[in-house]
Amino acid sequence: METATDGLSLESEATTVRAGATTLQDILSAQKRIAPFIRRTPLERSQSLSERFGSNFHLKLELFQKTGAFKVRGAFNKILELTRAQEKASEGVLAVSGGNHGQAVAYAARQLGLKSLLLMPEYTPKNYLEAARSYGAEIVTARNMVDAFEKAPAYESQGWALVHPYDDPLIVAGQGTVGLEILEDAPQVTDIIVSIGGGGLASGVATAVKSQRPNVRVWGVETEGADVMARAWKAGRVVEVEKMTSLAKTLGAPSVCERTLAATKQLLESVTVVSDKEAFIALEYLLDRAKIVTELAASCTLAAAERLRRHFTKDHHVVLVMCGGNTSLDELIKCRELLGN
Fold it and tell me: Is the overall model pTM greater than 0.85, yes or no?
């Protein structure tokens, strides 16, 4: 599935692109704010992918970020602003997460001397739970992500400050710093392929990039069964999905939000939906040829590139955002068995 952008023109948006309430200046401010706390991850050209596609392919290796995913960027930006504004919650910070966001909030909270409480679905992989606990987080499990979000207000009323995984301009700004780094390291970039969970990363990256380089194309990706953005585009409104069926658990947002829906409709070329099997085949290729172990939420960008390859020529420079690498050996074996590879 590939969802079109209905022909929206982006040529005049060079200085006015916004992701909800998030601007380029917000992202530049976030870059300065979080710099002491995160890694500036590498961007490398892939010879094997470049030969495979007859184009120039690059990998933004955000899986080497602290906690193994991009999420710490937004978490630090939000929590640092909470403490600066003297809005530190009486209890600590609260997160709803299927894995990476929870780890990021727990890690950032520990670094900044705060307590953290995570609401996580009961199917969260063991390695995510163990990592979050190692950062000092208290974990409360829920039936699924919808149930986890429904539990959050009760904890907020007790004094916990919610750090939303994507529906927050500070979170979007933090994630957008990935886009700034891409432009700095690959100024020749023509295309960026980025995955979508709730849409914070895609919105932030697209805002950072297209505010400065409006001709750069940003392509969104989801997996079947975790395609809440594609469904929202089709419906023209936010759609809630109670049960996620994709194996790409870190793409498991129950819905997007008005902020990220509006931003992606304005800024993305399309949302391509690939199967779990396509994403896993891409994961195996990246392991064999690039020597990196990604999540399905990251390898799906390569699967999408296959669907989109007609758009890329020898003159294009395509960046795949490897957003996370928190995949255990048990998960890889389970995926291989379930997908019949």
Answer: yes
